[in-house]
Amino acid sequence: MSIRRGFKNSSVVEIIAFFVLLIANGLSMFAFSTTSWAYIDNKVFNYQGYGLWRICATTGSCSLLDGTRSEWYMKVQACGIFGMLGINIALLLVISYLFVEWWQKDIELEVAAILCSFAGAVFYGLAVSIYKEEMPNWVGFRTDLEFGNSMTMAKSAAVVSAVGGGLLLYDVIKKRDSLTV
């Protein structure tokens, strides 16, 4: 099936949900891979940018965090992974639902996309809340610590993913109501 025919055979709500989840996916990738969840803004510490996986200095040198023994940081990383996967899988399911003829209009696929988009939103929300709670204690520089763009992107990915799931849920309810009438 062509992309044009997939869009032509889909409802407006499904198409909007597709684009919303596409945006959530981009925000998620940005949040997951960049080093600006938090900053330390002082001249003593050259390590200014904290991400999920590394700390990077303004000079360009980085230290890895992917093997950290800090339990709270591992929880944030795990929630970030599950959040990103939830959003990615939701988008993949919507793509399959809209454009793969074999799965076209399979209601179970749409329900799975709803669950994945909400799961992605919940996990990114958990990652953000744990990070905001624990990061000031971890770095010990409460006055110099600022939360950055990557965390904002993670929050945005969670909200946008929830909106996409809500649109798909609305679509499923609307279809169910039209079948019972």
Automatic annotation (TrEMBL):
Localization, UniProt: Membrane
Key words of the record: Membrane, Transmembrane, Transmembrane helix
InterPro entries, A to Z: PMP22/EMP/MP20/Claudin
Chief location bin: membrane
The protein, known as: Claudin
Record-level GO cellular component terms: membrane
Membrane topology: Multi-pass membrane protein
Pfam families: PMP22_Claudin (PF00822)
Ranges annotated as spanning the membrane: 12-40, 81-100, 112-131, 151-170
